[in-house]
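note to self: dont lose this again. the chain is below, predicted strucutre after it. 71 aa total, dont forget to put it in the shared folder this time
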Amino acid sequence: MKTVDVVKWVATAIQLVGYGLTGLNIVPWNVFAFFVGIFLWFAVGVMWKDRAIMVVHVGAFVSLLAGYLNA
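---
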């Protein structure tokens, strides 16, 4: 298994944990999980040289950070 595949699956698992924590209303741990997942998916975008993945995760990071700081 390639490094990018490991990062991709770890990021996916962490994102799913974030969704679960959100569903259970466990804050701020849900936000922290999403930050880690976003960072890892951004890294996957870099490894694949896929700008669309990078852009969507920068947007997700900015949106999540703004909401977190505004809460």
